């Protein structure tokens, strides 16, 4: 029977620390503020927005929502983004992506002020992860994985880690973050040519991070009894309905030492990290002024 690594204890510790930091900033006349820039009203965006606002409110962080119509033109969008960039009272910007086809997503990504890029999408933020530059922030989900490992005292140094997934949101950045803490890291993806060898490699990992976006991809043959599995996936369970992860939890949970559930695992920590980044951005602003 595995130890279930739930997100709630992690967020409770972060919330307590963040509330203290916000009170300190407010005592100095600074109110940490997040700007959410949303185009259209996609259900996933609205769900995450609601969660982010709830987390911010709990920590004392202000939220401004800039909601633009789905058919917004490039000039109007650029104006809204630049206004948030130049507003000294806004410390972090969450720009929902992907943007509609009529907007230049790459241009928007490069326009975003790296010092306010609290979701880690600009080149400067990715350089922070890959090269250690002190600008920008890691992607929230990637940092949430590391926060989970740290909270539950999962040893990283000297351990074998495999990351399934290669996105810039989770797979690649979390691979480098594990590497920076002295893990031996292997990164793979769900289109690997030989599934049997793929599972064999995974079964040798001490830490398995799964962010492939493929429901119940990881089965017992991917595991070993001393393994820690961090499941980042959020998928619709076609068999039972509801949400499931990239790991077949019912089949895998008895086979490993530690595992995160879906839901109730990484998702709640991710929104907490977003708030943490807004507070850190406000602290950086205080130090440079």
What secondary-structure arrangement, pairings included, does this model have?
Layout: E1 3-4, H1 7-27, E2 33-39, H2 43-59, E3 62-68, H3 74-86, E4 92-95, H4 105-111, H5 123-131, H6 140-151, E5 160-164, H7 171-180, E6 184-188, H8 195-202, E7 207-210, E8 228-231, E9 235-236, E10 243-244, H9 249-252, E11 258-259, H10 266-288
Parallel strand pairs: 1-11, 2-3, 2-4, 5-6, 5-7, 7-8, 8-11
Antiparallel strand pairs: 9-10
Helix pairs in contact: 1-10, 2-10, 6-7, 6-10
Plain-language structure description:
The protein is α/β, with parallel strands linked by helices and 289 residues long. Helices cover 43% and strands 15% of the residues. It has ten helices and eleven strands. A six-stranded parallel β-sheet has the order 1-11-8-7-5-6, with helices on both faces. Strand 2, helix 2 and strand 3 form a beta-alpha-beta unit. Helix 6 crosses helix 7 and helix 6 crosses helix 10. It is globular, with a radius of gyration of 19 Å.
Query: How much beta, percentage-wise?
Result: 15-25%
Q: Quick one: how many beta strands?
A: 11
The end-to-end distance, rounded to whole angstroms, is 52 Å
Globular, elongated, flat, extended or rod-shaped: what is the shape?
globular
Radius of gyration: 19 Å
SSE class: alpha/beta
Low-confidence stretches: none
């Amino acid at each position: 029977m595995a130890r279930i690594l739930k997100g709630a204890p992690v967020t409770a510790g972060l919330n307590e620390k963040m509330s203290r930091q916000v009170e300190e900033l407010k005592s100095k006349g600074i109110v940490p503020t997040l700007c959410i820039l949303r185009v259209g009203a996609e259900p996933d965006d609205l769900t995450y927005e609601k969660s982010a606002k709830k987390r911010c409110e709990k920590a004392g962080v202000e939220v401004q929502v800039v909601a633009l119509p789905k058919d917004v033109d490039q000039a109007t969008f650029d104006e809204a983004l630049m206004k948030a960039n130049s507003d000294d009272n806004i410390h972090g910007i969450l720009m929902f992506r992907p943007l509609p086809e009529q907007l230049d997503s790459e241009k928007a990504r490069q326009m975003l002020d790296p010092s306010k890029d609290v979701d880690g999408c600009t080149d400067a933020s990715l350089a922070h992860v890959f090269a250690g530059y002190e600008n920008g922030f890691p992607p929230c989900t990637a940092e949430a994985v590391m926060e989970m490992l740290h909270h539950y005292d999962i040893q990283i140094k000297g351990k074998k880690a495999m990351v399934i997934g290669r996105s810039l949101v989770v797979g690649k950045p979390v691979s480098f973050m594990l590497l920076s803490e002295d893990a031996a890291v292997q990164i793979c993806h769900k289109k690997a040519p030989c599934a049997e060898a793929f599972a064999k490699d995974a079964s040798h990992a001490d830490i398995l991070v799964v962010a492939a976006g493929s429901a119940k991809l990881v089965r017992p043959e991917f595991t070993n009894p001393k393994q820690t599995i961090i499941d980042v996936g959020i998928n619709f369970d076609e068999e039972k309905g509801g949400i499931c992860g990239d790991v077949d939890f019912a089949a895998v949970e008895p086979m490993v030492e530690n595992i995160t559930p879906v839901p109730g695992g990484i998702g709640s920590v991710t929104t907490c990290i977003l708030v943490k980044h807004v507070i850190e951005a406000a602290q950086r602003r205080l130090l440079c002024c």
